[in-house]
Design goal:
By secondary structure, this protein is α/β, with parallel strands linked by helices. The chain has helices spanning 4-13, 21-30, 34-53, 65-75, 89-93, 95-109, 120-129, 151-158, 179-188, 207-213, 231-237, 254-262, 272-281, 292-303, 305-324; strands spanning 2-3, 57-60, 79-83, 113-117, 135-137, 166-170, 194-198, 219-222, 240-243, 266-269, 284-287.
Length: 330
């Protein structure tokens, strides 16, 4: 097995000079986005190089790269591609996406292309497109975590009041997460909860700026990557973890499995992978994406002591079941 990224890095660093002026012009016409254009050119060259050397090419990518992987795999070589992204109705209705799905599905049916998808939902879509061909799902394996700290101890370590309600927003802080709705919903609560933002700031308006703009000062922001042995402190200190993703979000989120393993009930935006996970395992509540009052109502429901206790009881078995899937890769 050879890695595509090993072959494409030197191509990207030379600004794609090696593909020639004519082909650079063709790529500009076909693919307006510079990022996608560079990625596609790197993929084409790497697959051609891989074909010359023989073997299987493995590459983690999305956008146009799986399409070129499929095209290359039809006659040139076998390929393994990790595919991310949504499979929502907008994508399926697009002519470009339909053509993409047909080409990739053809390569999968011919066993020239093996897809590895981020969630079971995405995998099911590509299994249908590929006639049940080779499609796997990325497993989410959990590391042994040992005894969990009591909530009082976790809060003491963070300097958080034991009696107040705590809403955790865990993971990289980036622009595709709707923190504005979370803050505005928190302001509508009878007693505004502490919003605990934990994760490295990546893009968009920062939680610090957003809390200031919306005049919400009951926030604690930990802007850093969290060491593995420290993660439990944040989940155990919280009453609930909120996942404020866009509507019909189909990409995976390790936070849902982590929340289950630490026994922290989930409130997630509706639609897509997150809704199916929460409904299937009954590990939290859902709200309408972008709807402030809907989120407030979901928080009220999950803060109910009986509801919260019932969720916490079932969460460890859900996490164990997800972890066991990591041993079933073909």
């Amino acid at each position: 097995t050879r890695c595509l990224s090993d072959w494409s890095s030197d191509v990207c660093s030379s600004d794609l000079v090696s593909i020639g002026r004519f082909w650079r012009m063709v790529l500009r016409l076909l693919i307006p986005s510079e990022g996608w254009r560079n990625s596609s050119a790197c993929a084409i060259l790497a697959f051609l190089r891989g074909a010359g050397r023989g073997g299987t090419v493995t590459h983690c990518a999305d956008g146009p790269v799986p399409l070129f992987a499929a095209l290359a795999g039809l006659k040139v070589l076998r390929a393994v591609v990790t595919i991310f992204g949504s499979v929502g109705e907008a994508d399926r209705d697009s002519r470009a996406q339909k053509l993409r799905a047909k080409i990739i599905g053809y390569a999968v049916r011919r066993r020239r292309l093996h897809l590895i998808s981020e969630t079971e939902t995405v995998a099911e879509f590509w299994r249908k497109s590929g006639g049940g061909g080779a499609v796997s799902v990325i497993p989410y394996a959990l590391e042994p975590i040992g005894p969990l700290p009591a909530q009082t101890i976790a809060r003491a370590r963070l300097g958080v009041n034991v009696s107040q309600q705590v809403v955790l927003l865990f993971g990289t802080l980036r622009e595709d997460k709707d923190y504005r709705t979370v803050i505005l919903a928190a302001k509508l609560m009878p007693i505004p909860p502490l919003l605990l933002f934990v994760g490295k700031y990546i893009s968009g308006i920062s939680p610090t700026q957003l809390c200031a703009q919306l005049n919400y000062d009951n926030c604690l922001i930990v802007d850093e990557f969290i060491a593995r042995d420290q993660i439990s402190i944040y989940f155990r200190a919280a009453d609930v973890t909120v996942l404020p993703y866009p509507a019909n979000f189909e990409r995976g989120s390790g936070v849902v499995v982590e929340a289950c393993s630490y026994g922290c009930p989930i409130v997630a935006s509706g639609g897509g992978y997150l809704e199916r996970f929460v409904r299937l395992h009954d590990v939290g509540e859902l709200y309408e994406t972008g709807n402030i009052r809907s989120l407030r109502q979901a928080l009220v429901r999950v803060f109910d002591s009986e509801r919260q206790a019932a969720i916490r009881r079932r969460m460890p078995s859900v996490a164990e079941a997800q972890d066991r899937k990591s041993t079933r890769l073909n």
